[in-house]
């Protein structure tokens, strides 16, 4: 098994079908240095290929999910280096994952940390979670989706306030604005996120990935295009054995036995 410097990786849950990624750079509050995000991209790739993995949970420590991109690493970056290396572009591997990804956020999710959480499909927060896009305080702007995903998730006025002031929002505010789906006590958060992964994992992985892609299309296209995509994808489920099994099981009043075909 590959070893990691900046993350911990396990398969958890009763059936060991949830891939757990724990960001593990405690001295830097999980600042997302290039090496850390490369490890995250690689394990996302591995979990995606691993048929035993139904869902993925990304978490950090109780103090910090992640305090942002690594400021020390980028302090002396230049425009030309950003362009030639397409700085931060590999982060998008998380958003591109075909399997469901749940962010379990305790403590700080700032800058790139908030953006990483927003690349996930569902955000669960611990009571102490704090979200923010403080890039403006550093003389820069969000660079991994903060100015694009945040307004789509919480609307323009809230997003603009967060991006232009750098103010943090707590878990309750984040839930109220729709950024977070549920809040849990700090010590329960990760196990509740794993339970969510297990619950999703009872469904057909094939159909789950079609549903995920369809919801994501709502964020990436117009309503007309999205409705068309959804309709054709819905029609597409009729080409699968799992759709037939799901409806037949309902009619026969028995649990469905999905085979991912
Ligand atoms: N990058 C590099 N190092 C960081 C870091 C970051 N984003 N955030 C924290 N650290 C380091 C600190 O430098 C410190 O290291 P040293 O002990 O070597 O000095 C260590 O982590 C602990 O941090 P603090 O002493 O600051 O801890 P605190 O509890 O007093 O404060 C905090 C916590 C409010 C989160 C504060 O650390 C902070 O403001 N961090 C920066 C947050 C930020 O601006 N994030 C945005 C980054 S830019 C970005 O993300 C761009 C993008 O869009 C992708």
Automatic annotation (TrEMBL):
Its EC number is 4.2.1.17. It comes from the Eukaryota. InterPro entries: ClpP/crotonase-like_dom_sf, Enoyl-CoA_hyd/isom_CS, Enoyl-CoA_hydra/iso, Enoyl-CoA_hydra_C. PROSITE patterns: ENOYL_COA_HYDRATASE. Keywords: Lyase. Pfam families: ECH_1 (PF00378). PANTHER family: ENOYL-COA HYDRATASE, MITOCHONDRIAL (PTHR11941:SF54), ENOYL-COA HYDRATASE-RELATED (PTHR11941). Belongs to the enoyl-CoA hydratase/isomerase family. This is enoyl-CoA hydratase. It comes from Nicrophorus vespilloides (Boreal carrion beetle).
């Amino acid at each position: 098994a590959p070893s990691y410097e900046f993350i911990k990786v396990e398969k958890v849950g009763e059936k060991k079908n949830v891939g757990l990624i724990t960001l593990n750079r405690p001295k830097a509050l999980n600042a997302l240095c290039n090496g850390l995000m490369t490890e995250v991209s690689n394990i996302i790739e591995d979990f995606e290929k691993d048929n035993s993995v139904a869902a993925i949970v990304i978490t950090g420590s109780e103090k910090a999910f992640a305090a942002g991109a690594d400021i020390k690493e980028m302090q002396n970056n230049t425009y030309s280096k950003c362009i030639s290396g397409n700085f931060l572009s590999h982060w998008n591997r998380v958003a591109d994952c075909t399997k469901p990804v749940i962010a379990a956020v305790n403590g700080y999710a700032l800058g790139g940390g908030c953006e990483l959480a927003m690349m996930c499909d569902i955000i669960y927060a611990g009571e102490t979670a704090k979200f923010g896009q403080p890039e403006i305080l550093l003389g820069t702007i969000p660079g991994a989706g903060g100015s694009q995903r945040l307004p789509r998730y919480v609307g323009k006025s809230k997003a603009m306030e967060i991006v232009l002031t750098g103010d943090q929002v707590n878990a309750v505010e984040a839930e109220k604005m729709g950024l977070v789906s549920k809040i849990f006590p700090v010590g329960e958060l990760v196990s509740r996120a794993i339970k969510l992964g297990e619950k999703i994992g009872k469904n057909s992985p094939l159909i789950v990935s079609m549903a995920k892609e369809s919801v994501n299309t709502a964020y990436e296209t117009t309503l007309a295009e999205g409705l068309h995509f959804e309709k054709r994808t819905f029609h597409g489920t009729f080409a699968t054995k799992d759709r037939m099994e799901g409806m037949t099981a309902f009619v026969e009043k028995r649990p469905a036995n999905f085979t991912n075909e």
